[in-house]
């Protein structure tokens, strides 16, 4: 009789451990599922299990409360059964080992407790947890049925516990939710893309496009625009022949029409407008007659809104106004596309000459109009905050004057020590040499990495203490 009771108790211990695993599995499976995965399973299979998974996912707070109750009850019952039953198996072994009779029972109970706890943790919690995390949908489809029966039986008690917990949570200023939020922020999606690329699930180019697309909304019109200093424009008095000549010379298809300068822009024309004018009249028809109105947006406008404005513009060109009301530059659809896809070249572009970054060994030739965030991403140099957005602006601010071809300067370190840790593997500084100027604008700069010792020697040569951050950097 005692043997039969022991066998039944042992079977009960195994069943209770499996029940604990059932509740643990439903917990991790439902919290690891995405709404889109559940909807796809319901659409493709449409069976009662798919419907049950969706039902419990939308009633997650109640289901998880039931799972916690189930885990608590089965764990308590497992301990209650396992200790005396397993102790009976250990007692004879302890007697054979010569343990005194008065110490056999307490030692057997302690060993039984340790073994029962270990088995319950491994097979009742850790194994089902790992299975549920690895394959949440299949696990959820398997366990929601039995767990739903338990929750139905104990529905009243679970609701009572749930209400008590909700009252406590609300007093903490938090509104309880019945299901997990499936939406993800741009930062979370960016992290997912990065992790997927690192694990090899996404190829590098796809990950780069996705990452740029997610960050596009964080850019501003000021970052997307072509600066006014590089904009080719037509005067209001220029003729169609001038339009054709400028299109041939620059390879551009759209031009703002101005009176004096870009601050007084009256509209925009495209090279296609020339074909609407008979050849005999092209020397008489002026740009003022052809110019169409052009939208104007502030520099601070976000990238998504800018893209909408560019797409809605009849000429796919918009002007960007600075805080003083002047024209800071213009944005075309190509500018928006290049922010996501990178540089795009057509038959009129000299891809080699127009490339913003060209590497020569450890050195970089960088366009002066490159933004500092692009410089950090490509080269690894993170500049300090300041009244500039481009490498050319940083060079000008560091020198404290209009640069000249041949100027060399030690670029200042980041004013954020934490950000400086994320610079490329080069432990040192960057030497910048101005190689090309366009009027007063820095057109091209060569960046060369310098070791910390070389940077200190250069600072010492110009009478600057190595520990000091020189205003305007060090130049020669």
Automatic annotation (TrEMBL):
Keyword tags: CBS domain, Cell membrane, Membrane, Repeat, Transmembrane, Transmembrane helix
Ranges in coiled-coil conformation: none
Residues spanning the membrane: 6-30, 59-83, 103-123
Keyword hit for tRNA processing: no
Cellular location(s): Cell membrane
InterPro entries documented for this protein: CBS_dom, CBS_dom_sf, CNNM, FAD-bd_PCMH-like_sf, FAD-bd_PCMH_sub2, Ion_transp-like_CBS, Transptr-assoc_dom, UPF0053_domain
Domain CNNM transmembrane: 2-206
Gene3D superfamilies: 3.30.465.10, CBS-domain (3.10.580.10)
GO MF, any single term: flavin adenine dinucleotide binding
Cellular compartments per GO CC: plasma membrane
Pfam hit, one: CorC_HlyC
SUPFAM superfamilies reported in the protein's UniProt record: CBS-domain pair (SSF54631), FAD-binding/transporter-associated domain-like (SSF56176)
Taxonomy, superkingdom: Bacteria
Start and end residues of each CBS domain: 225-285, 287-347
Membrane topology note: Multi-pass membrane protein
Record keyword Thylakoid present: no
Family, as annotated: Belongs to the UPF0053 family.
Protein name per UniProt: Magnesium and cobalt efflux protein CorC
